[in-house]
Specification:
about 325 residues, alpha/beta
């Protein structure tokens, strides 16, 4: 990622930083209260609101270059931390399910003073974006998903597809009690392995690796991040949450774009085949050759070009 006019500071400490407002195109750091949480956000520009949602093992900082460039294109671009990804950010209701993160996205749109927003989600951030669009399509203008498809394809593959089961070994390992110890061992070498396997053509710069490790090294953050996966295979027991999860996984009625790299070592490109059946108001799928899981970092110019063309049409 290019160096931008923003102080080097781990995202996990942003909650203690005073709000500031440098010129457009610069990164603003502050917190926004929404859905019972004080979300640290990175923000740039003025104009139509675009939310950029990170995944795992990642954090909002990875969007810095992207939101700066969106701001230069006339957007107000915001990258929030997902619930659980900062000290004090544990889910108030204990939920890290898709419906909970989707509700966070909708609450953030309102808290940021907008009636609606475009959503760009990567990995778990894509899941949050899909859920938000399913729960309240009025608040979502357009939707972009990166690297994690929508629909029943992934769940089916985890049961019946040996190749995807191999790719998703980490999900199963995270169900164990030793996961926290293993992930933290040897300066988070576990996370380095995931990045290498998922994006074999990309090397995370040392400064960004250090910042990422600092995020997951903060008290409670790693366990909270693993909770997303620990709740993945267990249906909720509360009837209200069950109903909400059903709503959050329904057909999507907003114009949508999906990007997936052919060299993604986490999610097979084949999982996104046929997902257009879940989109009822326009859907485009772009498969990018030679690109891995973190495609917005590996090929930022190409990804941004696809995204801008879609948002502006």
């Amino acid at each position: 990622m290019g160096r931008l006019p923003v102080e080097e500071q781990p995202l996990t400490s942003l909650a203690h930083r005073p709000e500031n407002s440098p010129a457009d195109g610069h990164i603003r750091r502050r917190t926004v209260h929404a859905n019972g949480l004080d979300f640290p956000i990175l923000e740039a520009g003025n104009g139509p609101l675009v939310l950029c949602l990170h995944g795992f093992p990642d954090h909002a900082r990875s969007w810095i270059s992207f939101i700066d460039r969106l701001a230069r294109e006339g957007y107000r671009a915001v990258a929030p931390a997902l619930r659980g990804y900062w000290v004090g950010g544990a889910a108030p209701d204990g939920s890290y399910r898709a419906s909970a993160t989707g509700q966070d996205v909708l609450a953030l749109i309102e808290a940021l003073g907008a009636d609606s927003a475009d959503l760009i989600g990567h990995d778990l951030g894509a899941r949050a974006a899909y859920a938000a669009a399913s729960l309240d399509p009025v608040r979502v203008r357009k939707l972009v998903g990166l690297a994690v498809p929508y629909g029943k394809g992934l769940r089916t593959a985890l049961v019946a597809d040996g190749d995807q089961q191999r790719r998703s070994w980490y999900m199963f390992f995270f169900q164990t009690r030793m996961a926290e110890m293993a992930v933290q061992h040897n300066d988070f070498a576990f996370l380095d392995r995931l990045w290498r396997e998922w994006s074999p053509g990309y090397v995370l710069p040392p400064a960004d690796r250090s910042a990422l490790n600092e995020t997951f090294g903060q008290p409670g953050v790693l366990t909270q991040a693993l909770a997303y996966y620990r709740q993945l295979f267990t249906p909720p027991s509360e009837p209200e949450t069950q109903a909400l999860e059903v709503r959050a996984s329904g057909p999507i009625t907003v114009p949508s774009l999906y990007l997936h790299g052919t060299d993604d070592g986490c999610m097979s490109t084949q999982l996104s085949e046929g997902m257009e059946a879940m989109f009822t108001n326009g859907f485009d799928r772009v498969v990018m050759p030679g690109v891995g899981h973190f495609l917005h970092l590996e090929q930022p110019d190409a990804v941004l070009s696809h995204v801008l063309r879609f948002l502006k049409c």
